[in-house]
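Forwarding these from the shared drive since the link keeps breaking.
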Amino acid sequence: MSNEEKLEYLKSRIGDFPDFPKKGILFRDIFSALTDPIACRYLKELLVQQIKQKYSDAEIIVGLESRGFLLNLLIATELGLSCAPVRKKGKLPGEVISVEYELEYGKDTFEMQTNAIEKNQKVVIVDDLLATGGSLKAAIELVRKAGGAVIGSIVVMELEDLAGRDKIDCDVLSLIKY
């Protein structure tokens, strides 16, 4: 099966939920696709292939809370790399570093354990969605604060009309664009 056919299959399994979490928003749900084992396999294959082609020198895959770290373990395992999570404040034990970022409705904080990334380690960040760009921008800042070198990021879905990519100062790969 071609990559285009795999993408179309995956896209057909992504759930659309109008007016969630509030009226006027069309929520694109990756969890709907993850209930389908074929979609899961195609998603893993597509992500791994893109990283092999574009970021072959990656040394660690960082996944964002919460769906991103479902993906980073799959990718890292397949590529023989390590992985690390970026979590919301108060969810990680031990010494952490943090970055505060803006949301549409307020502020939040991302954290990472201080020993998660080695100095100058080449990092690819993965998440399920690029919308307004706030969380990915914060994760990039956090990885750099930890001493890592962000060589790129990859998302399953990008909501292009929200222009989140414009806030990101590294390469971004999107499997599916809406």
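-- next protein --
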Amino acid sequence: MLGWGVEFLWAEMNRLLSLLFHQGVLDEQFLQLQQLQDESSPNFVSEVITIYFHESEKLLRNLRLLLMDRELSDYKKMEIHLNQMMGSSSSIGAKRVCNVCVAFRAASEQNNHAGCLRALELLEHEYCYLKNKLHELFQIEQQRALASGARYPAHQN
């Protein structure tokens, strides 16, 4: 993407965001998160999303472990993890991930092991799709910033 014009990169970012909103992957909360980013914190959104991904991967791992043993599935603990996943997903505007968490929680409340496994698979799929698309968005945003000559503070080692 090096050498692409700033206008083209803006258009690519807007195209990708429009797609994600149209697909219901993101909601208006993501736009509110973007509004918190400014010159004093040019990487705010990507930093928040990175934390979200790190925490979500731990929650997904915990959910998978809880479902591995059909006899010992701790549905109350699952609901706690799902509530955490829903809250953090909602705070960044990850609408489809939130929606799957709602269905997952319903299966958990019914102690439905098979339903929980299906919901976990769907949750992992939606999470990976979100992660890939936001990674793509941040790559385009970084290229746009470089193309426009934006300078970010150097990281201290």
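Residues 153-157 have pLDDT under 50 and may be disordered. The CA atoms of residues 60 and 124 lie 7 Å apart.

- D.
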